[in-house]
Write the structure tokens for this entry.
Amino acid sequence: EHNLEKVFEKVTEQLLRLVSASNMIIMTVDQETGKLVATHEHKKIEGEAIQVSSTIIRQAFVEREAVLVSDAGADKRFDASQSIIMGDIASVICVPMQFRSEVLGVIYLDTRGSTNAFNNNDLELLVALAGPAAIAIQNASYHQQLEDDFQTTLKLLANAIEMRDHYTLGHTWRVTKYSIEIARELGWSEEKVSEVEMGGVLHDIGKIGVADAVLRKP
């Protein structure tokens, strides 16, 4: 799967099918800030903000170790931190997602109210699945980066062509915008709309081989 959001959805769906939890959050590292940010979440109670334990998440991420908390309120490792109390967090599993030597983020699950909801088998299962999840996320990220670079290259080419032919300056982008609007009016998927955009940008690519004497003649 090359779509990053769909990767998150599949990972969440499969984990919640195997481990019962009140909330689940996938957090990944923001490339600009280097900080963990919530990139996908699932919650049982819609409309209610998820209160997570930053202390537990930080331990899993920084120490690169899986964390199992059976009774968060009584666990002396975390001294019933404010987030645990406010969020009524009872049981937690948090595991790092590691790709080679890099930690891409963490997977965090918790229960509200009921202690001892998770056991070592759940922890081992989550650890086992975090590896393939990290690989899938990294592959999707690479693919997205390639797509972005490709689109940037196409637009640079189109701009270079536009600058060669001042008579039709702006033509490429007008054709592209009209084509996208027509595709959306026809109800095409966003994937097909993306292909239409690519076609619009490329439709005058042949001008690269036309001599300036022809393009710029009076």
Remarks:
- The radius of gyration is 25 Å.
- The mean pLDDT is 82.
- The chain is about 50% helix and 20% strand.
- The CA atoms of residues 26 and 107 lie 5 Å apart.
